[in-house]
Amino acid sequence: MLWRRRDETGPLGVPLGDLLRMLQPTSIKASLEGNTVTARHEHYSIRIEVVPPEAQESADEPIRAVVRMITELPKPVSSLFQNHEAEATAAYNAFAALGALCGDRGNVYIGSRLTIYEADDSWSNLHLPLLAFTTICGSEAILGALRRTMTNEGHRGGPSKWTARDFTQVERHLSRVCVCTTGGLGFTAEFGLSEGAVSAAAGHRKTALFQLMADQPHPELGGGLFCLLQMPHQLRDEHRLNQVCLQLNNMEMAAHDLPPHFGAWSPGKLGNNPAYVSFLPNPLHAASGIAVNSAFWAMNRAQWANAMLASLGVKS
């Protein structure tokens, strides 16, 4: 397998040398210095840095390290976000795949984050491919979609490598903890956000809606798996919703005990509600169980977002 782990150590036990080897066959020029890999694309660079957690929030699951990926936008692109970060980032984060437009006061960047736990042995089959393909195409998902929108280029299509068999596997795992269904090239689940909340069909209002779809190609990356988590919270107006989405994306970059952040918060489709979107391009289908992991990450993210929204004065 391409990302078979080598026996070596790295900053805080994260073998960044593995990432360098995966990038070698590409046109990306990558180098390692200390705890940081710098990956240079033609028009921008990505900084992949390993940092310690800001706090050990759980004694049961201690955190080994946090990997943050930050793409500084090219100046012609960054100028588009000056003085109206919330509106502009919300619009373009709808095209997010493996990272989100984050920032404040004119400093907008594309960010992703991976929290790695001491007992986690998913480096080779999950974490490494996620980091590698985010380095290769995570930023391009947003920048390319932005370019296609501005130049009226056609969107890319193509079939997804995810099939009904993948969704059946997700349902087998998730049906133990929540209401979920699958059919064709899709999967749907509801995550209760309060005691006794199970399903909107039963009249429960405090549930988050999660969907996996293999028939929604990305405009820049083509076929893959579209993941959508919609929170039930409805805000009073579009501007406030955009501000909240930007705040959530900024919070996701903290070195905390959080599910992996490879996507973006943007306006949802339930009426002024925040939603988390991500897209796994076809090459990530080879990462064993990534659809199942994405579903459990979404379930944990729904609980975290419910608490964060409450702290921002937003109630469901």
Explain the overall architecture.
By secondary structure, the protein is α+β, with helices and mostly antiparallel strands. It has two domains: 11-151, Yope Regulator, Chain: A (2-Layer Sandwich); 164-311. It has seven helices and twelve strands. It has helices spanning 16-23, 75-78, 85-93, 123-151, 164-174, 238-252, 290-311, and strands at 29-33, 36-40, 45-51, 63-72, 100-104, 107-117, 179-183, 186-192, 207-213, 224-230, 264-267, 274-281. The protein has a six-stranded antiparallel sheet with strand order 1-2-3-4-6-5, with helices on both faces. Helix 1 (16-23) crosses helix 4 and helix 5 crosses helix 7 (290-311). The longest helix is centred in the middle third of the chain and has 29 residues, at 123-151. It is globular and about 50 Å long. The termini are far apart. Mean pLDDT is 90; it is low at 1-7.
Number of domains: 2
> In DSSP terms, counting alpha (H) and pi (I) runs of 4 or more, how many helices?
7
Distance N terminus to C terminus? 45 Å
The rough form would be described as globular
Largest sheet properties: 6 strands, antiparallel
User: Which strand order does the major sheet show?
Assistant: 1-2-3-4-6-5
Q: Which stretches are low in confidence, meaning pLDDT under 50 for 5 or more residues running?
A: 1-7
Mean pLDDT: 90
Look at the helices and sheets and give the structural class: alpha+beta
Order of helices and strands: HEEEEHHEEHHEEEEHEEH
Rounded to the nearest angstrom, the radius of gyration is 19 Å
- Tally of strands: 12
How helix-rich are the residues, as a percent range? 25-40%
Strand content: 25-35%
